[in-house]
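Consider the tokenized backbone below.
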């Protein structure tokens, strides 16, 4: 290959590397600037947005904010939809329609559709692409397109401390107790008791906690070893670096 062609290729490669770094820096600035917090709500006017709560940019569809309350230290991932009411600009009355407790995490691409009351308890974590809705299509009239028939609405209540796996669907009328685990891809309707694990479509209880016998059926893996008391974050970071060095030297 001629020398000048090599030089041209090398220059183009360097320019592309510079542009790539510029694009990533600009996008990081856009993400930081476009994030929604109590101090910087942008165009969104929630009834309440708690201290430390952050909606990542870009946001998904958001409307009915005056009837949405977000607790403290919630993490709302990118492209998450939060809606109150069937459509924007409705007057939904004086009561809150959608409530997120403190410390709720909604993973990327999740949807929370609250056409009637939806409540998510504190410290509930949702993986990506979880769908929680208080509305379902009706198909009573066999001659009318399903999408044109008036939907059915039932409140949804999710207790504190739950874990909802990737792609799970929580249907209208669902009531989840405390510390419920919903398996990835599960479709949940009806009531789920405290300290239960549900899986499947429709979801069924596959494991539950007995105060005397513990988890039934028993867990297949040992419980994680807790961090000893008194260990500081700095010490944990040092151990992590040590393990990385050991892995690299293996």
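A designed sequence for it:
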């Amino acid at each position: 290959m001629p020398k000048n062609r090599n030089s041209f290729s090398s220059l183009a490669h360097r320019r592309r590397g510079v542009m790539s770094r510029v694009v990533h820096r600009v996008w990081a600035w856009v993400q930081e600037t476009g994030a929604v917090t109590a101090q910087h709500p942008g165009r969104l006017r929630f009834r309440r947005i708690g201290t430390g709560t952050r909606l990542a940019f870009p946001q998904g569809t958001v409307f009915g904010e005056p009837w949405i309350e977000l607790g403290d230290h919630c993490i709302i991932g990118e492209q998450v939809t939060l809606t109150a009411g069937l459509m924007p600009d409705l007057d939904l009355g004086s009561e809150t329609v959608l409530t997120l407790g403190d410390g709720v995490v909604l993973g990327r691409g999740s949807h929370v559709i609250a056409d009637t009351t939806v409540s998510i308890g504190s410290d509930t974590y949702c993986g990506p692409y979880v769908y929680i809705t208080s509305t379902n299509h009706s198909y009573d009239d066999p001659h009318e397109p399903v999408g044109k028939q008036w939907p059915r609405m039932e409140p949804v209540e999710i207790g504190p401390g739950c874990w909802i796996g990737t792609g799970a669907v929580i249907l209208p009328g669902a009531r989840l107790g405390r510390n419920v685990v919903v398996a990835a891809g599960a479709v949940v309707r009806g009531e789920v008791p405290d300290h239960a694990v549900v899986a499947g479509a429709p979801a069924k209880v596959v494991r539950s906690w007995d105060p005397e016998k513990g988890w039934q059926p028993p867990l297949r893996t040992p419980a994680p070893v807790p961090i000893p008391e008194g260990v500081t974050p700095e010490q944990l970071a040092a151990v992590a670096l040590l393990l990385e060095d050991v892995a690299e030297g293996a």
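The mean pLDDT is 91.
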